[in-house]
Design a protein that fits this description.
The chain is of the alpha+beta class. The protein has helices at about 10-20, 20-30, 45-55, and strands spanning about 10, 35-40, 40-45. It has a 3-stranded antiparallel beta sheet with strand order 1-3-2. A hairpin with a 2-residue loop joins strand 2 and strand 3. The protein starts with 7 loop residues before the first strand and ends in a 7-residue tail after the last helix.
């Protein structure tokens, strides 16, 4: 039996997936760059939205 792919992950896990701190990812969510959903105080990030946001980041370092 194969593992079920998650549709959303907690914010801290989402941050780890893209190599950012939880605080940096929170700023992106607060700025409206990444969509998040809330269950009470728990912040969940849709993995598809996270991937789209990541793919839209510049491929080269900004000077």
């Amino acid at each position: 039996m194969s593992a079920i792919a998650p549709i959303a992950v907690p914010r801290a896990e989402a941050a780890a997936l893209v190599g950012l701190s939880d605080r940096e990812l929170k700023r992106a969510i607060d700025a409206g760059e990444i969509k998040a959903r809330f269950r009470g105080r728990k912040c969940l990030v849709d993995v598809t939205d996270l991937r789209e946001w990541y793919d839209a980041l510049p491929a080269e370092k900004e000077i």
